[in-house]
Design brief:
Number of domains: 3
Largest sheet: 6 strands, mixed
Radius of gyration: 26 Å
CATH class of the largest domain: Alpha Beta
Helix content: 40-55%
Number of strands: 13
Strand order of the largest sheet: 1-6-5-2-3-4
Length: about 400
RNA sequence: GGUGAGAUAGUCAAGUGGCCAACGACGGCGGACUGUAAAUCCGCUCCCUACGGGUUCAGAGGUUCGACUCCUCUUCUCACCA
């Protein structure tokens, strides 16, 4: 039982520091029912959660299963500084109002995965604000500039002469101080957070709170392109709020290679089950599309419902495998004879008439399933299904 | 504060008086092939009812028949020195 739990917790993790401590905590839970705390910090700058975030959240959910209370920390104070991690330039600060807005929307999305009863949502402004100038000074005495500069991203910026704000030095200290205040037993975060996570251990020692948190780091999930990390700004993300059809389609569009990565980090299937799937694909007994489809179903169902996931699959097959028209299409209408290029722009299928002409020339445009090649075509009164490429559809009513 | 370098399309990056709507790479889009995969191959990639016209190379002026290219100022970035 203990070993099983441990295995599940370690699954997919990139690095664990002080795993003995995690084992002890689990043992105490199984033997005596003692609970413990797991901290995870979130920056309220990005309120739209995507699957990259859920890797962490799912890990937290597993901890909850084995006796943990999650300290879901919203870094409302630290967000005013901006986490320097991975940044090549100083961040802009956010307004207090903005942070509140974002934090609220965070909570809303998070409980799709976490058990609210075993989750404590905390804001770090609560204890950092009262720190005051003297508390702050005490905090800064625990660390020095030279060690701060050992950090890779600081080091690079320092050497290249890019500005580093003093407040950015403060950031890791504050994040570490959160662990002091919360007396966290474990903290989890992405591998890019290593420095900040270790700061928690350092400060817990410095403040002599009688424990040092274990640290569990999860790998960063790659986005749809399979190369860069999943992020909203790179537009390679699958949002937890995506419509079932979109979510299903996006997952199915990832490469086979990336699919295994997603299986490992996102699926709730056991590692041996996944291994079996892998073998099945390798020896040809399982079709990779089928395997990917199951993954897409599982994930879509998690954020919507099983029924929604299934109808997303049916819709997908209908449109893509059987080349039929999707059930729901945007509808537009206009008056009089319309030039086809203009119509495509009006229906938001192409950004400009120039693009529309190019698409027609390339054979990408279909009207009522028929490919057209006349870029001068005028649409007379009637109803048309317009299509550009494989996935853009619109219904146009000409009056 | 001083000195020098630079700012080119979504990104990186050529172009240093007409051959420039601007090489190339990446990305993106489309077509073929497929499992809407991946890989590969081909085409497209500022706007405009278009073998023509319009607006672009940080911003504002100027020189010139003609400027992304030369000059002046402004803004912003970077490097070196203090």
């Amino acid at each position: 039982m203990l070993q099983e739990a441990l295995k599940e917790i370690k699954r997919g993790s990139a690095e664990i520091i002080d795993s003995d401590r995690i084992e002890k905590l689990l043992k105490a839970y199984f033997d005596e029912g003692k609970t413990y705390s797991v901290k995870a910090g979130f920056d309220p700058t990005a309120p739209d959660l995507h699957l990259g975030h859920t890797v962490l959240l799912q890990k937290l959910a597993i901890f909850q299963k084995y006796g943990a209370t999650i300290q879901f920390l919203i870094g409302d104070f630290t967000a005013q500084i901006g986490d320097p991690t991975g940044k090549s330039a100083t961040r802009k600060t956010l307004s207090a109002f903005q942070i509140q807005e974002n934090a609220a929307s965070y909570k809303e999305q998070v409980f799709k995965i976490l058990d609210p009863l075993k989750t404590e949502v905390v804001f770090n402004s609560e204890w950092i604000n009262p720190l005051g100038a003297s508390g702050m000074l005490t905090l800064t005495t625990t660390f020095n500039v030279a060690r701060m500069l050992e950090r890779d991203d600081f080091d690079k910026r320092y050497k290249s002469g890019t500005s580093i704000s003093i407040s950015e030095f403060i950031y890791p200290l504050l994040q570490g101080y959160d662990s002091v205040h919360l007396k966290s037993d474990i903290e989890i975060g992405g591998t890019d957070q290593k420095f900040n996570l270790l700061m928690g251990r350092h400060l817990q020692r410095a403040y002599e709170i009688g424990k040092e948190q274990a640290v569990l780091m999860m790998p960063i999930l790659e986005g749809l392109d399979g190369v860069q990390k999943m992020s909203k700004s790179l537009n390679n993300y699958i949002g937890v709020a995506d419509e079932p059809n979109d979510m299903f389609g996006k997952i199915l569009s990832v490469s086979d290679e990336l699919m295994w990565r997603y299986y490992e980090l996102l699926s709730t299937k056991t590692l041996s089950e996944i291994e079996a799937l892998k073998n099945g694909v390798a020896d040809g007994t399982l079709h990779p599309k089928k395997v990917k489809e199951n993954l897409a179903l599982e994930i879509t169902a998690r954020f919507h419902s099983f029924e929604a996931a299934q109808s997303a699959r049916d819709e997908f097959d209908k449109v893509h495998s059987n080349n039929q028209i999707p059930t729901e299409i945007e509808e537009y209408s206009c008056n009089g004879d319309v030039w086809i290029a203009k119509a495509l722009v009006d229906c938001n299928l192409t950004p400009s008439t120039s693009q529309a002409r190019r698409d027609i020339k390339q054979g990408a445009v279909k009207i009522n399933q028929e490919k057209i090649d006349d870029e001068q075509l005028q649409l007379a009164t009637g109803e048309y299904i317009l299509q550009v490429g494989k996935r853009k559809f619109a219904k146009l009513k000409v009056n």
